[in-house]
Amino acid sequence: MPKIIDHDERRQDIVDVTWKLIVEGGIEAATMREIAARAGFANGALKHYFSGKDAIIKGAYERSLHGLGERLEAHVADARGIEALEKSIRFTLPVQQEDATAARVLLSFWERCVFSPDLDHDYDEHLENWTAGYLRYLREGREDGDVVNPTSDEQLANEIITMILGATVTRVVSPAYFHESMLEAQVTDYIARLRRADCR
């Protein structure tokens, strides 16, 4: 009998290989030829599983997001409001080595987004969902009386995302400049600002 091929498993193998290649050498290292070779495919066989390189890169990116999302959900657990917000920010900042690895994949994805409208659209959707989560925590914080800063929730959420994205870039591009204590102090100061009505 012919061997039954699990297409979902093969697709995941291709994504895993692509992830490793990006971590090792960036987006340039993840050529279709090298992906196929590492995954044990003949040249051109990848087209049976993905429409092209962008689709494979998207899979590697989603792998990163899925792992982060699962760990974040477990970390925040039943917290709400400002407690959930602080836990989420501290967890999302790229402090650990695993976070640095995910950050390299993310930077590669950003680079690819510049030249691919489809990927750019996917990232816009991710940012919208990410912002919505912070807005929910801020709204709960105001309901609980913990967030009294007069700045709009939309601006506060955007500040958080900008801080995290900036830290992500720094973690990859200038690791010598990267200090965990500096990031921790920034989060502490930011949360304190949310609790003050006289601070913008």
UniProtKB/TrEMBL annotation:
Keywords, in A-Z order: DNA-binding, Repressor, Transcription, Transcription regulation
InterPro entries: BetI_C (IPR039538), Homeodomain-like_sf (IPR009057), HTH-type_TetR-like_transc_reg (IPR050109), HTH_TetR (IPR001647), Tet_transcr_reg_TetR-rel_C_sf (IPR036271)
Annotated ranges, domain HTH tetR-type: 8-68
Glycoprotein is among the record's keywords: no
Pfam families cross-referenced by the UniProt entry: TetR_C_6, TetR_N
DNA-binding region, residues: 31-50
Keyword Transcription regulation on entry: yes
Matching PANTHER family: HTH-TYPE TRANSCRIPTIONAL REGULATOR PKSA (PTHR30055:SF226), HTH-TYPE TRANSCRIPTIONAL REGULATOR RUTR (PTHR30055)
Protein name: TetR/AcrR family transcriptional regulator
Organism whose genome encodes this protein: Leucobacter rhizosphaerae
